[in-house]
């Protein structure tokens, strides 16, 4: 099956549903080891520390001091906990798979109260509600995180140089243009780039690749990385 760039861009709702299969696109909070009655410290992805997100909570809980700090990557936030900041943060917001594979085995988080939080699954999108999303649970059934968002991860352009219309029309193939060499950077987020390079090569990222597909993927990857001016895992850069 092949997905054209125009079909992918036009079918945003379908893409959002497909992204459920890529749990790295899914964020969720976890309770950390610190404990305070009138203070809540949150380590989170950008956007979750804004007044739009925290304002309603502050209004509903007067007298509670809420402090939020954003990280630059999942490993960065996890390393903060490993360095002893489990005594600083009450809640951590990062991509879901890290909870079960890294945080829980290392004792950096503790399970949530299932009686309190399980009813929220009934209010979620069907992909998470029935049955409850598996990455939110430990192997023994403990609830270790609550999914809170999902969706596609796209690229960003400087609209003073590249119009939004051009970006939407070209999609990921934009980065194959020789004129764009040394004018873009790549976020080196482990497997995050796999879906993007598949889409660049008109490959279905949700099905196994055959030999021809792997050859196409390899060529695309070489072109994209060779044309980039910057490789970094720091999205702030």
UniProtKB/TrEMBL annotation:
Keywords: Signal. Residues 1-21 form the signal peptide. The keyword Acetylation does not apply. NCBIfam families: TAT_signal_seq (TIGR01409). This is PotD/PotF family extracellular solute-binding protein. It comes from Marinibaculum pumilum.
């Amino acid at each position: 099956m092949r997905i054209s760039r125009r079909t992918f861009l036009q079918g945003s709702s379908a893409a959002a549903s497909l992204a459920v299969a890529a749990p790295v696109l899914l964020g969720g909070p976890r309770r950390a080891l610190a404990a305070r009655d009138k203070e809540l410290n949150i380590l989170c992805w950008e956007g979750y520390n804004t007044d739009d997100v925290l304002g309603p909570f502050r209004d509903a809980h007067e007298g509670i001091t809420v402090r939020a700090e954003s990280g630059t990557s999942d490993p960065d936030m996890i390393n903060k906990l490993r360095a002893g900041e489990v005594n600083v943060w009450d809640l951590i917001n990062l991509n879901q798979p890290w909870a079960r594979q890294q945080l829980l085995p290392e004792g950096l988080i503790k399970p949530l109260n299932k009686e309190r939080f399980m009813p929220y699954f009934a209010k979620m999108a069907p992909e998470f509600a029935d049955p409850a999303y598996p990455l939110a649970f430990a192997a023994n059934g403990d609830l270790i995180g609550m999914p809170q968002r999902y969706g596609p991860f796209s690229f960003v352009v400087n609209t003073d140089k590249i119009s939004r219309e051009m970006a939407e029309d070209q999609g990921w193939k934009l980065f194959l243009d020789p004129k764009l060499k040394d004018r873009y950077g790549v976020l080196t987020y482990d497997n995050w780039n796999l879906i993007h390079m598949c889409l660049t090569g008109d490959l279905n990222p949700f099905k196994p690749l055959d030999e021809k597909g792997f050859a196409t993927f390899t060529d695309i990857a070489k072109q994209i990385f060779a044309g980039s001016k910057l490789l970094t895992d720091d999205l702030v850069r």
